Amino acid sequence: MSLKDEAFEAVQTRLHELGWYTGKIDGAPGPLSETAVSDFKRAHGLNPRAFIGPITLTRLFDPEAEARPKPKPAAIGGLPWLAEAERLKGTKEVAGKGNNPIIMDWAENLDQGYTGDDVAWCGLFVAHCMKIGAPLDPQSFNRLGAREWLKFGRAVDPQRGAILVFWRGSKNGWQGHVGFYAGEDADAYHVLGGNQSDAVTVARIAKNRLLGARWPKSFSASGERVTVNAGGKVLSTNEA
């Protein structure tokens, strides 16, 4: 970040005024602040690094600086990782050569080795959202491995905002998928996740594929089950 606490507190305040930053205004850099700076810079045509230089400051304190679109209140509900996941809906990997810089930024900000968005990124998406929303909960496992998320936090019943871990291919194999509980119908969970049709979308995944649901230890569980209509949406069978 490179700014001293007093100056960075002013940056946090301004980002908060514009709706880009939702964390505590304390002058202390962290994942939520870094993401706010990067997102602001990207929206204003700047190199989306968390570094704050004179060009960034000029653009940030310009009276014409763009405010971030307000998220739907129902999407937040006290679960900041779910709000971040909702915000990223529609993010897509790049077909063929090249990578989506947004996805690559997640890996860089997490100090996660990652070669490109042609590599499965459902775990990376969850890691980014949880680092933003629950930074006190360690991710001391292979975050790119979907089934590894069974080691995160604590076990809970499926509920709004929970991390859902699924088997893929074979229940006894190694492949899997991970995303967030957004709702359920009689036969399937509606999962907000990354790398679903190569994008951040909501997919319908059969309940009998569920391996477990996890929750950050630093938050109280929501306990909320959300019943939704299947709406003719087909079951996802392969999220790779």
Write the layout of secondary structure elements.
Elements: H1 5-17, H2 31-43, H3 54-60, H4 73-76, H5 80-87, H6 101-109, H7 122-133, E1 154-156, E2 163-167, E3 176-184, E4 188-196, E5 199-206, E6 210-215
Helix pairs in contact: 5-7, 6-7
Give descriptors for this structure:
alpha+beta, 6 strands, single chain, 240 residues, endopeptidase fold (from Nostoc punctiforme)
Describe the structure.
The chain is an alpha+beta fold. 28% of the residues lie in helices and 17% in strands. It has seven helices and six strands. The protein has helices spanning 5-17, 31-43, 54-60, 73-76, 80-87, 101-109, 122-133; strands at residues 154-156, 163-167, 176-184, 188-196, 199-206, 210-215. Strands 1-6-2-3-4-5 form a six-stranded antiparallel beta sheet. A hairpin with a 3-residue loop joins β3 (176-184) and β4. The longest helix has 13 residues, at 5-17. The chain starts with a helix and ends in a 25-residue tail after the last strand. This is TIGR02594 family protein. Residues 6-60 form the Peptidoglycan binding-like domain. It comes from Tianweitania sediminis.
Task: Briefly say what this structure is.
The protein is α+β, with helices and mostly antiparallel strands and 240 residues long. The chain is 28% helix and 17% strand.
**Element order: H for helix, E for strand:** HHHHHHHEEEEEE
CATH fold label of the largest domain: endopeptidase fold (from Nostoc punctiforme)
Low-confidence stretches: 71-76
Q: Gap between N and C termini, in Å?
A: 35 Å
Q: Please, what is the average pLDDT?
A: 89
**DSSP strand content:** 15-25%
Number of strands: 6
Query: How many discrete domains?
Result: 2
Query: What gross morphology would you assign?
Result: globular
Q: Which structural category fits the helices and strands? A: alpha+beta
Question: What is the second-level CATH architecture of the largest domain?
Answer: Alpha-Beta Complex
**Cross-sheet strand order for the largest sheet:** 1-6-2-3-4-5
Quaternary: single chain
